[in-house]
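User: Predict the complex.
Assistant: Input components as received:
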Amino acid sequence: MPEVILIISGVLGFFLLVSALVAWLTRDLLVAVLATAAAGLLVSLFYLILQAPDVAITEASIGAGLTTGIFVYVLSKTERYEK
Amino acid sequence: MIKKAFLILLVAFTGYVFFVAASARPFGSPRVVVSKRYLEKGLNETGSQNIVTSVVVLYRGFDTLGEVTVLFLAATALAALISGFPFERKERTEPSLVMSTASRYLFPLILLFGAYIFVHGHLTPGGGFPGGVVIASGFLLMFLAFRKYRVSEGGLIVTEGLAGFFYVLIGLIGLYLLGSFLASFLPPGRLHTLLSGGIIPLIYILIGFKVGSEMTGILRSLKGEDENG
């Protein structure tokens, strides 16, 4: 793999780790949902780098798009903060 | 604290297992027999430029029918669960003018993009599942932007049921004409054009409608029926 792709993967992986940790550690569930969506988007970029555009487009639309909407709906019906 | 340490340990162990399994087979090493056959003969056998689509719809078509069924069951179960819970309404702020105006113009474009994804499933990445989800996210935008926006339940059920019915019907026609369920009974057509790939475009259009109406149904049941709000 060329160096450029390795560098991009490293940066993406760092942000993926950060967003996963935020989603895990935060008490504000809305922040957790948005961090999960960011992680999904970064994972879909990884799929694109690994030359799997079909999986990437599915992950971007489901993992980062619709799932977030469903989670936000559920949050609006329950509690926003974890106890 | 012990719980978190245990979780970190679990994640590290899972990552180690994946690392060992992945390093046993070098990246990009020669492919296994089945996938090699798909890559070499898939284009001429099915007429689909996108090999992934030809695997999903034709070579592994029965699995895809199962997937669609699982999705249908999940949507039905969710609707049944949700309707039993009387959620108390909370105060909601009215969406801003920018949001509602932008949604009104974006909504048809999102629907068009979703339709593009599933109509071109055999040519470009994507297909029925992401296309349907994009369409449902367009409806999600409308649900968020307009509190009074309604989608008729009957329309969703009829769309979803008809799509499923025609999917099985196409499979049965293949069984009748060629002797195997979901066999491609249409000619492959001219390669790399819209009218190619045999029954793949038909099935992906049906899957797009089915997934789109199912996901919209899920969003609709989550939104709830607040007649006065």
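Chain A touches chain B through 16 residues (CB under 8 Å).
Let me know if you want any component modeled separately.
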